[in-house]
Amino acid sequence: MTFDIVKVRADFPILTREVNGKPLVYLDNGASAQKPQVVIDAITQAYSHEYSNVHRGLHYLSNLATEKYEAVRGTIARFLGVSDERQIVMNSGTTEGINTVAYGWAMPRMEAGDEIILSVMEHHANIVPWHFLRERLGVKLVWVDVDANGDLDPDKVLGAITDRTRLIAVTHLSNVLGTVVDVKSICDGARERGVPVLVDGSQAAVHMPVNVEEIGCDFYAITGHKLYGPSGSGAIYIHRDRMAEMQPFMGGGDMIREVSKDAVTYNDPPMKFEAGTPGIVQMIGLGVALDYMMGLGMENIAAHERHLRDYARDRLDGLNWLNVQGRSVGKAAIFSFTLEGAAHAHDISTILDKKGVAVRAGQHCTGPLMEHLGLAATCRASFGLYNTTEEVDALVDALELCHKLLA
């Protein structure tokens, strides 16, 4: 199908509004994406006419909610290229997914001196849970740097493996540099050495087709609110072999078969790892969002965003006073930058906002990467499927105003 940007933008009601008297130019998609009307309608429909708790009821509304909720598991599996939907654990997002692995898989099988390999680009959600194991078990975190362009060499990751390596945890796409990591090469090499790999797919799954079975990873986490779905929704793919090795992270309803005073019998995976009343409507909304993206075509979305990336790179490179972090040739349409001189990222962001341009300013939950780059903070313009080249021009115009005011 043809990717019609005019029709796509019409699907997102918030894009018609103004901010500070200017048309909204929303370039904060790396933090959270806007929602299409079909997702908003699905949420309204669920709460207005179809809401009930799932799994435990026998009445009509409970059965309807359960049917719609459980159908999302299959949608996520199709979206990620997973042949068996029972390997999909639904949750509130990547943070919960990685913590589930840290507590349910890693903590019971690691001890002092064991090693976890991380890249310096990781988001805090893929760092802090491993620090818990460092603090509580004495696990060692092994860091692999990126090169001057922001690329991560798979051979360097694999070269960091020792006989104490128990896990590699790596992002698929940097939320700051836009770098796309060759996770398949990492997974192929790690498998030969018997080392499982967790991939943080929070950013990558938004911008490109993903097939986790082709990648060959053991865990792959996604977050719904970046995928044009509701906040509080997400999932993690867990290979069946790793599921068999896991203990439950949280205890409560749904993850059990029987409970007595003296014993508990757990449910089968994936329910074993889904305790309590879930985000029912959030997950229904996520399913609609993923259907929307697949309807547009992930290859079409990727091609559109590559065009935006190339156009933005050319325009930003024309600003000789702008420092862009991350020069990977195949990067995503994510641009982090600073201005020459003493201009703070927060000041830049505030001026851009006055022109209706929404960007993110700060460390982007990547403290080790900021330290590696020698920066306190950056501004980040992150593009999505509804952005246009005209919005790139609006960003450049606003940056020129910043330079005039702050230089």
TrEMBL record:
Pfam families linked to this entry: Aminotran_5 (PF00266)
Reaction catalysis annotation: (sulfur carrier)-H + L-cysteine = (sulfur carrier)-SH + L-alanine
Record keywords, A-Z: Pyridoxal phosphate, Transferase
Record-linked SUPFAM superfamilies: PLP-dependent transferases (SSF53383)
Domain annotation Aminotransferase class V: ranges: 25-395
This protein's name: Cysteine desulfurase
NCBIfam families for this protein: sufS (TIGR01979)
Organism: Salibaculum griseiflavum
EC number: 2.8.1.7
GO molecular function, one term: cysteine desulfurase activity
Record family assignment: Belongs to the class-V pyridoxal-phosphate-dependent aminotransferase family. Csd subfamily.
Cofactor: pyridoxal 5'-phosphate
InterPro entries linked to this entry: Aminotrans_V_dom, Aminotrans_V_PyrdxlP_BS, Cys_dSase_SufS, Cysteine_dSase, PyrdxlP-dep_Trfase, PyrdxlP-dep_Trfase_major, PyrdxlP-dep_Trfase_small
Function: Catalyzes the removal of elemental sulfur and selenium atoms from L-cysteine, L-cystine, L-selenocysteine, and L-selenocystine to produce L-alanine.
PROSITE patterns, sorted: AA_TRANSFER_CLASS_5
Gene Ontology biological process terms in this record: cysteine metabolic process
